[in-house]
Design a protein that fits this description.
- 2 copies of one chain form a homodimer.
- By secondary structure, the first copy, chain A, is α/β, with parallel strands linked by helices.
- Helix content of chain A is 45%, strand content 15%.
- The first copy, chain A, is built from 12 helices and 12 strands.
- At the A-B interface, α4, α5, β2, α6 and α11 of A face α4, α5, β2, α6 and α11 of B.
- Chain A binds a DNA duplex through α2 and α4.
Chain lengths: 329, 329
Amino acid sequence: MANIQEVARRAGVSSATVSRVLNNTTAVSAKTKFKVEKAIEELEYEPSMLGRNLRNSESRLLLVLIHTFSNPYYSEIINGIEDYSIANDYNILLCETDSNPQREIIFLNMVKNKLADGIISMNPTVDLEKLKALNENHSIIMCSDYYEDVSIPYVAIDNELAAYKAVKHLIKLGNEKIAFINFDDNMAYARKRREGYERALNEFNLPIRDEWMCKTDGLDFQDGVQAMRKLLQLEERPTAVFAVSDTIAIGALKELNVKGIKIPEEIAVVGFDNIGFSNMTNPTLSTVSQPKYEMGYKAANMLIESIKGSKADSVIMDHELIIRESTLK
Amino acid sequence: MANIQEVARRAGVSSATVSRVLNNTTAVSAKTKFKVEKAIEELEYEPSMLGRNLRNSESRLLLVLIHTFSNPYYSEIINGIEDYSIANDYNILLCETDSNPQREIIFLNMVKNKLADGIISMNPTVDLEKLKALNENHSIIMCSDYYEDVSIPYVAIDNELAAYKAVKHLIKLGNEKIAFINFDDNMAYARKRREGYERALNEFNLPIRDEWMCKTDGLDFQDGVQAMRKLLQLEERPTAVFAVSDTIAIGALKELNVKGIKIPEEIAVVGFDNIGFSNMTNPTLSTVSQPKYEMGYKAANMLIESIKGSKADSVIMDHELIIRESTLK
DNA sequence: ATTAAAATTGTAATCGATTTCATGATTTTT
DNA sequence: AAAAATCATGAAATCGATTACAATTTTAAT
């Protein structure tokens, strides 16, 4: 309630001195400091960030753009972002865009409007032109998704290699008919994973058949259920499925369970992301693990350095294939 | 980049007029309006929220406190909060406290510091004294959790009744030995659910045995796994389990599957919350559904009205018992 | 054509902090 | 004891908007 002027008046000093006590900038005599601190205490004064931010023209707020909170994949990344940010006196603002361009614009404008200092985008459906324009004068880092031919720095894994390894694992188990359930091929990560899938099949001279390339409408459990349902209706069923995300793979597992199909004997399944659930399914799900926490942590680090003025370089992190019951013979 | 003064200069008017065009407050002649809009366009001007907020002493930002993002229960509530907030020109800032009092204080201070206009707390472990103090002069709404004897308005369901119905359902199926896996009895919702559990047992003259009241260290899957493991070691095993959350119930299901125990024939399970994953488990999980989206929507509505100055009254919303395979004989 | 009323626009104060520059008070040096 | 250097503090400008009030212009009324 009280402002800096009232504190100054009560302490019998000027507001400049109060500010100095507040920020430990210039030396203030012990006696004055004591008076000021007493006044602050008595008035229960809390500095207004609005005044401070206006003057300093910074908000110490970071925006994190996500498509949806309901995908648990993001929560670990966010933990990493938060930990680094808080430790460096930044707070984060989580923004769910729902793939709605209007919402996206609101959030991007918050940076232009000085309400936030920078953006970590994990939002695959972002309006690329707007993002590029913003990137001219502001700090942006992409995390887990990215654009190959745009100069926005990113943190990601080698999606092509990870997918290649996952599919090769299925091949080594003796599978020759391997389906791929993908979501949106426009996303770099999705395209890369498809390329890895194709490379593995090509390397072993296995057919890439159109009806084994399934496209879903989203990344929800239900999308996996439906994709699997379609695959099961095919004349020639695959014996293994590689899904672009765990959520989809879990939906696929569910459908297989419902139909009484044995996993992995009849159909083996590999997912991607290693979300918490993937260890709770029946059978447990083989998947590709990304260092989610570290990716978030690093992204926040890159963003804050970039805000301070240094140029950030993209980073590729390690991944790991985790073999569980859904591919254990 | 450009500020309102530069726009004014370029348009040949005063900054006051630019502001009027920006906010549609007082009438501005068509000609002037055109000139100003042209200047805004040419300079790619975007108003600084910092200046605006300082002057208006509002941030149009709402804080949403959650313990952790990794519990999918919250994501639907957040969707409701977001939809209402965005529709009313507020943005929300999601704050994960991790039960860390220091983080909590940071977030509560954001309201004192005028960086945010109000709080929706879904944070069971919040420092109650601090929250009460803040509630004196600021707007706070509790959502899904609440404090009975504190004057902070809340949105919740009748937890006692819901638990009573869930346990009665288990009794009707013929179960007489019913265990309860709970987390933290200090939370109002947890206490209420325990009371409902006890009321149902008492009504049917069934024993409430201490070893069937399990306490976990958290709400993660793994906590459910461990609780179930303990219950299975008992000399006299329960034939049914009521869990305080779906995450715990899902962990319990997992452990039962691992041990080869038939659900629901040997042990029936009921959860609480109806998270998306509860329909993907094997068997699917019976649970209590809360109108999560609506609760969030209503909480945001109450908060914004409260910020505008009207007094909010607590709201109890409907719930529903959803019967799935884990209790289907 | 003159005057009153209405519409438009500008001036300047304001929100709450930080910071440069100037000044006065102390301390140190000679 | 006088001069120089250091330290502590205050006055006032500033960040970028909004708005009460005043001034000016336009329109309407006589």
